[in-house]
Design a protein that fits this description.
Elements (H helix, E strand, L loop, with lengths): L4 E3 L10 H5 L5 E5 L4 E5 L6 E5 L3 H7 L4 E3 L21 E3 L25 H8 L4
Antiparallel strand pairs: 1-6, 2-3, 2-5, 3-4
Length: 130
C-alpha cells in the first residue's frame, strides 16, 4: 500500500504547487499569515476549497515558506509524489522518507537527500490545529 504524502525541506521558498493541481482531494495546504489560516485549492490560484486553523507553534517554524499536507485528508493516492510532479523532489511517501541512515533511490535528485526528513512527519501532523 502507498504511504501518506510528506512534504520536506526542499519545498521551502519554492512552493511550485504542481502538487496542488494533481491532488484529487485537495489535502495540500498553504499558510496565509495575514488571515492566519491554512487553505487548499482545487487548482493553484483558482480559489479556496477548504480551510483549517493552524497550530501557532507548528506553523511558526516555516510559516508561509512551505506547503503542508493534511495527513487526515490524504488518501495515499501517490499523485503528488510522482517524480515528474515536484520539480525539486520535496514530496515523499511516508515509507520512503529519507531518515539520514540509508541511501534511498527515491527522488535521488533531491539536493537535501541524506538529511533526517522524519521531522516533517510530525510537522505535518501538528500544523493543523482543528
Amino acid at each position: 500500500m502507498a504511504g501518506l504524502a510528506i512534504i520536506t525541506e526542499a519545498c521551502i521558498d519554492v512552493k511550485d504547487r504542481a502538487c496542488v493541481d494533481v491532488c484529487p482531494v485537495q489535502c495540500i495546504y498553504e499558510f496565509d499569515p495575514q488571515k492566519n489560516v491554512l487553505f487548499s485549492e482545487v487548482q493553484a490560484g483558482q480559489g479556496v476549497e477548504n480551510t483549517h486553523q493552524p497550530n501557532p507553534d507548528a506553523v511558526a517554524i516555516f510559516a508561509d515558506s512551505l506547503l503542508y499536507v493534511n495527513l487526515d485528508e490524504c488518501t495515499s493516492c501517490t499523485a503528488c509524489y510522482q517524480q515528474d510532479v515536484c520539480p525539486v523532489g520535496a514530496i515523499y511517501s511516508e515509507e520512503h522518507l529519507p531518515n539520514g541512515s540509508t541511501r534511498t533511490e527515491y527522488n535521488k535528485a533531491d539536493p537535501n537527500r541524506g538529511h533526517d526528513h522524519t521531522f516533517f512527519i510530525e510537522l505535518s501532523r501538528s500544523v493543523f490545529a482543528d
